[in-house]
Amino acid sequence: MKAELHWEGRVLIARLSEMDLSENGSLGETLQIISETEPADVVLDCSQVPFIASTGIANLIKFIQQVRRSGGGVRVAAPSPNVQRLLELVNLRKWVP
Question: Which of 58, 51, 93, 53 is nearest to 74 (CA)?
C-alpha cells in the first residue's frame, strides 16, 4: 500500500490505494505514520480502494479513536461502493461522515 499525503491548512489529506489488507499491517503502518503527525483533521481519500479486509477495519477503528482523542476528526471521502457498503455494515458511518 502506498499512501499519498498532503496538507491543506491543518487538514491532512491521505490518498489511499489497494487497501486489501492481505498484506499484513500495511494500512496499520500508514495510519500510524499519519497519527504521529497529529493532524487536526484527516480526510482519507478512498477513491482507489476496492476493498477493506477485517484487519483493515480494525486498524481504521483504532486510527479514528487516536485522532479523536487528540481532538481531531476523520472523514472518509469517495469510497467505492464495496467500501461504502462495508462501512455501513460495520456501523462506521456514525464515526466517520
Answer: 93
Q: Tell me the CA distances in angstroms from 79 to 47, 61, 70, 76, 83, one per residue in order.
A: 5, 16, 25, 7, 6
* pTM attached to this predicted model: 0.80
Cβ(19)–Cβ(46) below 8 Å: yes
d(CA 54, CA 28): 12
Cα distances (angstroms) measured from residue 74 to each of 1, 23, 24, 33: 20, 23, 23, 15
**Cα three-residue angle 40-65-89, rounded to 5 degrees:** 115
pLDDT in tens, 35-75: 777 778 889 888 888 888 888 888 888 888 888 888 889 99
